[in-house]
From TrEMBL:
Organism from which the protein derives: Paroceanicella profunda
Alphabetical list of PROSITE patterns matching this protein: ACT, HOMOSER_DHGENASE
Pathways involved: Amino-acid biosynthesis; L-threonine biosynthesis; L-threonine from L-aspartate: step 3/5; Amino-acid biosynthesis; L-methionine biosynthesis via de novo pathway; L-homoserine from L-aspartate: step 3/3
Binding site for L-homoserine: 196
Domain called ACT: residue spans: 354-430
Keywords in alphabetical order: Amino-acid biosynthesis, Methionine biosynthesis, NADP, Oxidoreductase, Threonine biosynthesis
CDD domains: ACT_HSDH-Hom (cd04881)
Keyword RNA-binding included in the entry's annotation: no
Protein name, entry field: Homoserine dehydrogenase
Enzyme Commission (EC) number: 1.1.1.3
Length: 432
């Protein structure tokens, strides 16, 4: 019998959409290069998706077909189950569980699955002695899981932050560049294969929060705590917000921050203003960036394409080549049983805020708002009125640093003023 470490690594590929088709293309395009680097060939043996008939622009004729992803996961001729279907339950979860139970390695791009079930799946994979790899799931083509879990493993990590959703960054930067409508730019992101099957996961900040929760576990040795992420999406950001931020030297980014404070883990994903001149402020289109701060490394910034066929396939192939080489590192950087439950921090550091309000246009209205802010000990750094909007006057206020709790109660009070014509929007200003 041939040496199993030398024979082809046999892949069962579940999902043939943007990511799955990319994986097929890369395996076919780079068969020789991959075999040379992995020490043995990678061979797709069987595939599965919803529709067998659909033309995906790739040649699938050499592969067996399975209607059922769970059956694919259990096939005797499959060594690695590649899950690129999506969904936090359904066949993604059942197939992954079945693969692990059958002693097969798993590579997945599915952050929703891992944000919910990562701990249980990592425990099961370790018990079965198989790898559970997910580089594609976080920041697409950027090798951030490898960087955090391997290259930086000797550091005490102090903070992880960044832009982790390509769709949102694409929308925010395209709106700024072209003045295009939010809905049109979102439709473009869907057409380009960046968005989730349910794009409200992207624009609602949920997809990026899934990713942040996985990075937190890796960075801080805590169990994945997706429900501990404070999430706010970009749905309420308007073109005037983007323009006014630019006018003040900032750009709006959906920014994730994970930090271990004295009272526990702070995890937040929210639109923030960042300096236009900062590396994060410069990110355009589908580009993501993750900043990792550690006690010995100080800071590392990784930047690259966060979504799309090629970058995501690249991450999947990186994981497959590691498996072919016989590497198996714990999914969350240390044995799953040793991960600690994450105590949640009661609040983050204070920050300056950008506030947008729509006030009835009459004398004395601004003074009412200033009084509310003053009552919450929030002092104003700058205040500007931007023309008129129907019966209202859009007003932008930039404050001096204030903590989130104080800002939230001030906003609730402003919202309750009869002069306030729309719910106020407040965005943190991160100095990075
Ligand atoms: N598109 C991207 O840029 C990235 C996507 N991901 C993740 O990769 C996964 C796949 O994403 P895409 O390829 O964009 O999705 P997609 O919608 O383009 O493709 C999904 C594929 O899975 C199959 N599928 C879905 N549900 C199924 C079910 N219940 N039974 C059988 N087959 C099913 C579909 O038929 C399709 O072939 C998701 O978990 C997504 O979050 C991760 C990083 C980047
Ligand atoms: N929908 C995601 C895809 C990659 O994870 C994104 O836009 O970043
Ligand atoms: Na990645």
């Amino acid at each position: 019998m041939s040496d199993p470490a030398k024979r082809p690594l046999r892949i069962g590929l579940a999902g043939l959409g943007t990511v799955g088709a990319g994986v097929v293309k890369m395996v076919q395009t780079h068969a020789e290069l991959i075999a040379a680097r992995a020490g043995r060939p990678l061979s797709i043996v069987a595939v599965s998706a919803r529709s067998r008939a659909k033309d995906r622009g790739v040649d699938l004729s050499a592969y067996a077909w399975e209607d059922d992803a769970v059956a694919l996961a259990r096939r005797a001729d499959v060594d690695v189950f590649v899950e690129v279907m999506g969904g936090e339950n359904g066949p993604a979860k059942a197939g992954t569980q079945a693969a692990i139970a059958a002693g097969k390695h798993v590579v997945t791009a599915n952050k929703a699955l891992l944000a919910r079930h990562g701990q249980a799946l990592a425990e099961a994979a370790e018990a079965a002695g198989v790898a559970l790899r997910y580089e594609a799931a976080v920041a697409g083509g950027i090798p951030v899981i490898k960087a955090l879990g391997e290259g930086l493993a000797g550091n005490g990590i102090t903070r992880v932050m960044g832009v982790m959703n390509g769709t949102c960054n694409y929308i925010l930067t395209e709106m700024e560049k072209t003045g295009a409508d939010y809905a049109d730019v979102l439709a473009d992101a869907q057409r380009l294969g960046y968005a989730e099957a349910d794009p409200s996961f992207d624009v609602g900040g949920i997809d990026a929060a899934h990713k942040l929760a996985l990075l937190s576990a890796l960075a801080f040795g805590t169990k994945v705590d997706f429900d501990g992420v404070a999430i706010e999406g970009i749905e309420r950001i308007t073109l005037p917000d983007i323009e006014q931020a630019a006018d003040m030297g900032y750009r709006i980014k959906l920014l994730g921050v994970a930090r271990m404070n004295a009272d526990g883990l702070e995890q937040r994903m929210q639109p923030c203003l960042v300096p236009l001149s900062s590396p994060v402020g410069q990110l355009d289109g589908v580009t993501n960036a993750v900043v990792i701060e550690g006690d010995f490394i100080k800071g590392v910034t990784l930047q690259g394409p966060g979504a799309g066929e090629g970058p995501t396939a690249s991450a999947i192939l990186g994981d497959l080549i590691d498996i072919a080489r016989g590497l198996n590192v714990p999914a969350f950087g240390q044995p799953a049983a040793s991960l600690k439950p994450a105590a949640r921090s009661s609040g983050g550091t204070a920050a300056a805020w950008y506030i947008r309000i729509l006030l009835r246009d009459a004398p004395g209205m601004l003074a009412r708002v200033a009084t509310v802010l003053g009552g919450h000990e929030i002092s104003i750094n700058m205040m500007r009125q931007y023309g008129h909007e129907g019966p209202g006057a859009p007003v932008v206020i930039v404050t001096h640093p204030a903590d989130t709790a104080r800002m939230q109660s001030a906003l609730t009070e402003i919202d309750g003023l009869e002069v306030s014509l729309a719910a106020p929007v407040a965005l943190r200003i991160e100095t990075l």
